[in-house]
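notes to self, project folder thing:

trying the whole complex as one job this time. last attempt i did each chain seperately and stitching them together was a nightmare. two parts in total, labels are on each line so i dont mix them up again. if this works i'll redo the older ones the same way
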Amino acid sequence: MASPEIDALTQALARLPGLGPRSARRAVLHLLKRRETALAPLVRALQAVEASMATCHVCGNVDTRDPCGVCTDARRDPALLCVVEEVADLWALDRARLFPGRYHVLGGRLSALDGVRPEDLNIDGLVSRVAAGGVEEVVLAMNATLEGQTTMHYVAERLEGMGVRISQLAHGMPVGGELDYLDEGTLAQALRARRPVA
Amino acid sequence: MASPEIDALTQALARLPGLGPRSARRAVLHLLKRRETALAPLVRALQAVEASMATCHVCGNVDTRDPCGVCTDARRDPALLCVVEEVADLWALDRARLFPGRYHVLGGRLSALDGVRPEDLNIDGLVSRVAAGGVEEVVLAMNATLEGQTTMHYVAERLEGMGVRISQLAHGMPVGGELDYLDEGTLAQALRARRPVA
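result (full assembly):
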């Protein structure tokens, strides 16, 4: 019933996480009804991001500059490095401005099931950063899942003997929970009570 | 923590119905991770719709042409006219290809609470279409809500004595329900059993 252009937009929106075919249709109608106040700003915002997005070659964060805003922020302590699985996790921690240091995004977690091996993650980049000096503590902030913890122990092993303190997020995270879903209070507690990897 | 461009996109997405700040962030990360397969197609789809969208001056549908695809479809019976509150309702009925005629979108429903009066809806346009001749039956397909039914009776009154059959959707719609949320089976039944306005 709708034109091919409108159908194409509905399908593009329906592929976003959290939207299905029905909610995508409602979103399209919302946009069509509000051409100037919703459709145009969204087009502009997407174009701006598409034109400027970049993956930070230092930490793996996604930003509109490379190095990213976190890596170039002089107020952050370069001696503190927080390792996370995904960009979403970096954003979750940084949203609450809980961590005064910098980050390193692995780009996933070790998973036998999904065939993700150490060489598929940005672990070599982390080792190089630590080897380059200036880092005193590495906080391993993986998800409290089986795969997250496996990844944490693997990374901890790789960093052993490099002369840096290696810590992990305190328990306080619900077991099986994922970082991006935690409230800021729990995140703050888990960061504050971080302890050395045994 | 993210750049102004990414923040702006997150906010634009968070204003869509069905998305909140958190799901908007996840959608943005999804798009950032899939620049070529998700971000670029979405930008293209939105631009195409923005560039071509039009409100049909005949029926009020939103399409990429005016008159819209429904009004120009020669296979549709011009003697059958289905009146709906919103474009979403037209789409809901037409998605299942249940109705062989054409449509008229009122652009809302009468509502004392929201201050929507008859002159705020496209009722004069409907009366003109019927007065122009060629229409034999008008199906009033308003929502089964108090305001929808009030609107239906008002529109039925306006069309009285114009020499057209006036019918309404059969009960079969759950009371209090809204058209766009019904399954196609219920919609089909309600259309098939439509009856004259008493």
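what i see at first glance: Chain B touches chain A through 56 residues (CB under 8 Å).
need to look closer tmrw
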